[in-house]
Amino acid sequence: MSSHADKLPRHIAIIMDGNGRWARQRLLPRFAGHQSGMESVRQVVKKCIEDGIEALTLFAFSSENWRRPAEEVGLLMKLFMTALDREVKKLHKNGVRLRVVGDLAAFPEELQQRIVNAEALTRDNERLALNIAANYGGRWDIVQACQQLALRVKLGSLQVEEINSDLLAAALSLADLPEPDLFIRTGGEERISNFLLWQLAYTELYFTKELWPEFNGESLQRAVASYSQRQRRFGRTSEQVEEAAG
Ligand code: IPE
Ligand code: IPE
Ligand code: MG
User: Fold this and answer.
1) Average pLDDT along the chain
2) Whole-model pTM?
3) Cys-Cys with 102: which of 136, 141, 180, 217 at CB 3.0–4.6 Å?
4) How far is the CA of 150 from the centre of ligand 3 (A)?
5) Is residue 186 within 6 Å of ligand 1 at its C-beta?
6) Atom 10, ligand 2: residue with shortest CA distance
7) Mean pLDDT of 95-103
């Protein structure tokens, strides 16, 4: 393994934040920021495909975002629907496997159906794994994983003593993908906001003041360049890491 993360990140996870502030700066309703943020999504997906990134996970709606005004939540649901309708064919054509992770039962039936259809259509694509985290929370993910393990104990197929971190990790959303190498948050806040809590344990964190609707392929390039300068030590010393790299 190389001492510096000079290879590209395999998996990038992004908190797309700052839509509301972008709109407010332009005296527009908050929703205009969400709409405009869709273009940033397109550009970032395109850039990941071009660069050969394996997986991209985008935080679209947190389990706490239900606390927002009903009108904004309703408009966001509508935006998801139109985005699925408009983008899925193109994603499929470009070899993208789309997955939506989170507690989807809380979404309108119609939206759930579209998600199922989009996932079924794109499931065999191998170019980019695009994951949309919707009604997702890192704590929810860990709890649902625990429930799966508890059920197996109850059914007798698993012993309590056999539970370890590999087994728990395997029950989380996105268990089949490498954990994120690079985490990006736009909008200037420096917090995780209940995104992938377990999976971010050793992820390189990158915060930018750019608001999500301003973020584009070049912005992603800058984040990746920052990542490539870093030495990932995973608890070891620099000397050990450098020696292992030869
Ligand atoms: C992120 O932008 C999008 C969602 C949470 C859906 P915000 O809507 O949080 O934008 P700010 O933080 O208010 O600027
Ligand atoms: C995090 O952004 C969730 C998404 C981007 C979907 P928020 O804007 O909701 O986060 P907080 O509330 O500022 O922590
Ligand atoms: Mg925000």
Assistant:
1) 96
2) 0.96
3) 136
4) 35
5) no
6) 193
7) 98
Ligand with an atom nearest the CA of residue 184 = 2
- Six-digit token string for 129: 């794994």
Cα(51) to centroid(ligand 2), Å? 27
Instruction: Tell me the residue ranges of DSSP E strands in the chain.
Output: 11-15, 55-62, 96-101, 128-136, 182-185, 204-207
β partners of residue 204: 182
Q: What is the pLDDT of residues 2-27, one digit of tens each?
A: 444 458 999 999 999 999 999 999 99
> Is 19 an active-site residue?
no
Site to substitute for ligand 1 among 15, 16, 17, 71, most atoms within 8 A of C-beta: 17
Nearest to 59 by CA among 240, 234, 200, 235: 200
Per-residue pLDDT tens over the stretch 148-187:
999 999 999 999 999 999 999 999 999 999 999 999 999 9
